[in-house]
Amino acid sequence: HVATSRLLQKRQLQFFGKIVRSSHSHPLCQSSFVPGLSFPLPLTDWYVRRRGRPHKEWIPEVTAQAMAIAGSWAQLISHTSSKNLWNYILNRHFGF
Fold first, then answer.
1. Quick check: 19 and 28 in contact, CB under 8 A?
2. 20 and which of 38, 45, 47, 80 could share a cystine (Cβ 3.0–4.6 Å)?
């Protein structure tokens, strides 16, 4: 079950890389981050969560995981700029 959760985490980070690579006008980026900021603020942080909503949101959680791998936002942008490079880094990180 550990391998399954690591594979899921890797796939989430791959999808996160796709979101970061997308243009600011792309629906993936528009629905994930507040436009016009140098550091992407998750769009969900601009709204009040109602009672019963999960405490954790997908974008902030995956951003934190990606930042832990890359080290900084500038490095993350550099790493995710190429799909092949990001996949290589993730494969090395997860040992696949």
1. yes
2. 80
Q: How far apart are CA 44 and CA 18, in angstroms?
A: 19
Question: Is the overall model pTM greater than 0.85, yes or no?
Answer: no
- Per-residue exposure over 67-91, b if at least 16 CB sit within 10 Å of its own CB, e if not: eebbeeeeebeebbeeeeebeebbe
For the record, the structure tokens of 24 come out as 């600011």
Q: Sign of torsion, CA 94 31 60 35?
A: positive
Tokens matching residue 18: 């796709």
CA distances in angstroms from 93 to 19, 27, 28, 29, 62, listed in the order given? 20, 29, 25, 25, 15
